[in-house]
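Write out this protein's structure.
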Amino acid sequence: MSGSIIRLVEEDIARPNFGPSPADGAVAGTPVEAAHEYHSRDGRTSGVWECSPGRILETEHAEDEFCTILSGRVGIIDNQDGTEEIFVAGDSFFLPKGSSLTWVIYETVRKYYMAAA
């Protein structure tokens, strides 16, 4: 791997450099999350993240984030209007900084992410 090209490998979640630990903001169940972060600079991060079933409340999403689901099933509720979007393997989505969200992890979910504060 060069310094200019970073390959994200789903299996690297088996070697997390964050977690596993209880998910911050858990409001139902006991979700445990872990991440293997590949890059972090100037408020931008990218990696692979995994979380077991449960609900996680985020009153203010900390960054702009683009995600692609690799496995599992997750619902994300927009706390402003109550709508829920369900995402499964192959789905991608964007979450704007400051969003009020509830993550509903129906089955252990794994995603690639790129976030910018």
